[in-house]
Amino acid sequence: MSDLHIRTTGQAGHITLTRPKALNALSHDMCLAIEQAIDAWRTDDSVALVILDAEGEKAFCAGGDIAQMYRSGIAGNPDFARTFWREEYRLNAKLAEYPKPIVSFLQGFTMGGGVGLGGHVSHRIVGDTSKIAMPEVSIGFIPDVGGTYRLAKAPGRLGEYLGLTAHRMTAGDAIHAGFADLYIPEDAWPTLKTTLSETGQTDALTQAAQTPPASALADQQSQIDALFAGETLTDVINLLRHGTSDFAAETLATLEKLSPLSMAMTLEMIHRLRGPSLDIRKALELEYRVSHRIMEHGDFLEGIRAAIIDKDKTPHWRHTLDNLPSVAVSKMLMPLGKDTLDFKESSMNIAFIGLGNMGAPMAANLAKAGHTVTGFDVAGTTAEGVAMADTAAKAVADAAVVITMLPNGQILRDVAADIIPHMAKGAVLLDCSTVDVDAARAVAELCTQSGLLALDAPVSGGIGGAAGGTLTFMVGGSGDAFAIGKPLFDIMGQKAVHCGASGNGQAAKICNNMILGVTMIATCEAFSLADKLGLSREAMFDVVSTSSGYSWSMNAYCPAPGVGPQSPADNDYKPGFAADLMLKDLRLSQQAAEAADADTPMGEAACELYRQFVEAEDGKGRDFSAMLPRLAARKRGE
């Protein structure tokens, strides 16, 4: 996009902000593009580190695009800003927790959103033009994007001072306060960036670093600690009013112009966060409580109006310094319940290949949850809310996650060979088919060779579970891939179990369904025997469902009609889980048993019985629990 230049150079992923006329202010789209880039580079072995910089001499990034927030807020639509903040805060957390070095070059103004972007990474470089600040209280907001995290960690009472006054830090101040790491003269930066790209190492940074300029904040530390020692805003104001120094008078004059509510919230947040349990996500979650409410219950819109819309510099705050009820602060900081910041991906480009009886409702559930889903199916089937592509290759082109739901392992291999060359580096191939372990592992290896992540995630729960979003996923693959897929599993199902390395999801499904096939046969045999012994099916169920014969086949999916909870048996055995599919899964279990030299006599017997039922009798197209009427109609030895 024109506001960013994202590329890889040598061993570095390189992101340059390219809006110098707007002081490189962050837009929503810029945040999403940066997030997508660092997500891809996280697992790209060719990228050893990331460089963050910006065009122009005036600013690395002077903040976020607050004018657009103002327009949406005035129009009565706070959700635009809430979405922006949720996704920006998620990016801030990812930057702070990134597993590879990130080097930010913070020239000129680095304020608000700029601190969130470049102020939490592993290597923060400042120079002679650097001016770093959290100025949000001047527009009726609070230091956000993790700003309260930095302020709470600052030495002494510097956090309170910086958060309430919006003071602009020089390079020396920023290093003293913990907002930067190294001072390097800016004329050395171009060469340093080249070295970082060529070597993929950060050693050159410490070698180039010089003693930072003197910090005025360090010289004022004792005064700041004394004047900002109060627990509440009223305490701080009283200390300043009774101060005798010019510094106290100048600081009081500054605070008298700013939003009292914003300053009081900032002070309370810093005090709540300060301590050994502090982490970036805790700070961001607390900040989002204010962000979520600020349009309707704070000074934010008035602050923007006065600063950048009408530019009259005379905001009319809701409260005065001497008339601020403490409950106003408490209400803004109350937990948000269901709206709590959860750092989940709110929208993702997803491709879904295979829109059959299972795939179509799964894809539709993802689309309903707000994701952009593009589908493809060779039969031309569609799904609600899903855009259709002409080919599988076109469907996957821009997808962060590609989901497949296919009939067997050979088709999975063929589809993977077709789509992998067209997938974006770092994307995830998430296969939900039930296939043989060897196919799952072969596809995972192809993904690894192509710089992709792979998950094999077969499901349990049938068509009803796919439609209702109550599937269980058994997942094999890396932890990083599972973390990306987890929010999608939460939409499509009720449980996802990470079973280990690639292929282990299929192994778990095969073992689970071998148990299911065996226990269903045993359950049907028991009902058939009870019939012939004159024991009613109701009595049989009442005893077994509450004693040692308990099983899922009996208690949740009883094969006897009119007994126990509703099941396919009560619908003339129309399939919830077809006998054909059970035969497929049992064959997979025996294929795996043979490859692993495992003795599975019950699984082998169940496989043969379902083969006979489906291929030689009337089991094809019926539910797998229809084994009961089949057994009930037979005599011993038939």
UniProtKB/TrEMBL annotation:
Per UniProt, residues of the Enoyl-CoA hydratase/isomerase domain are 13-329
* Domain 6-phosphogluconate dehydrogenase NADP-binding: from-to ranges: 349-500
Q: Which InterPro entries match?
A: 3-OH-isobutyrate_DH-rel_CS (IPR002204), 6-PGluconate_DH-like_C_sf (IPR008927), 6PGD_dom2 (IPR013328), 6PGDH_NADP-bd (IPR006115), ClpP/crotonase-like_dom_sf (IPR029045), ECH_dom (IPR045004), HIBADH (IPR011548), HIBADH-like_NADP-bd (IPR029154)
Q: What is its EC number?
A: 1.1.1.31
Please list the GO terms describing molecular function: (3S)-3-hydroxyacyl-CoA dehydrogenase (NAD+) activity; 3-hydroxyisobutyrate dehydrogenase activity; NAD binding; NADP binding
3-hydroxyisobutyrate dehydrogenase-like NAD-binding domain mapped to chain residues = 503-628
- Keyword terms: Branched-chain amino acid catabolism, NAD, Oxidoreductase
Annotated catalysed reactions: a (3S)-3-hydroxyacyl-CoA + NAD(+) = a 3-oxoacyl-CoA + NADH + H(+); 3-hydroxy-2-methylpropanoate + NAD(+) = 2-methyl-3-oxopropanoate + NADH + H(+)
Q: What class of enzyme is it?
A: oxidoreductase
NAD in keyword set: yes
Q: Biological process GO annotation list?
A: L-valine catabolic process
Q: Tell me yes or no: is Oxidoreductase among this UniProt entry's keywords.
A: yes
Metabolic or biological pathway: Amino-acid degradation; L-valine degradation
- Which family is this protein grouped under? Belongs to the HIBADH-related family.
Q: What is this protein called?
A: 3-hydroxyisobutyrate dehydrogenase
Q: Which organism is it from?
A: Sagittula marina
Q: What is the lineage of its organism?
A: Bacteria, Pseudomonadati, Pseudomonadota, Alphaproteobacteria, Rhodobacterales
